[in-house]
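Problem: given the chain below (207 residues), write out its structure.
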Amino acid sequence: MEKPNIIRRMYDWVLHWANTKYALPALFILAFAESSFFPVPPDVLLIAMAVSVPSKAFRYALVCTLGSVTGGMFGYLIGYELWYSNSGDFSGFANVFFHYIPGFTEELFFKVSKMYEENAFLAVFTAGFTPIPYKVFTITGGVCKINFLTFILASSIGRAMRFFLVSAIIFKFGAPIKSWIEKYFNLVAIVFTVLLIAGFAVVKYLL
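Solution.
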């Protein structure tokens, strides 16, 4: 039998916190870490906790949002201060991310940099709400030195919409909806974002 890979072990480790008295601080810390370097999304723990105590689902969503946005600020700081060496090349710190952080590639970094040239708010919001690697956007935002208030506003809206929507679904439908969320929520988030962007484009065209 094959040993589970490291991501699966991390996933299981994250889930075990739901049944401990440290679940709430663990949720905050996980959401914080995922915004800059940790590979497992906080939704995993949020869903487990909300299913266990649906009456506290929105409280958990708030904690998750605060942790994620605060972690996003830390990611922004990493990009702003540590990404390039004095010679103008990628620092050793940046190369650690490129080589060892799942989903964080040099190619994606440059794609996100290009997105920030076009519309920084929309780029951060999209990353905050959809399954696109949010950490890439937080760090690249600091590297590109996008407006910090724009970054915080877009992060807060995107992350809050994602986590509160998850909690609202569980609050409404309870445990039976858990497997559906885990299977289809990311697809729903992507479709919603595409429709939202399309709506903005139509309004802009008409005006």
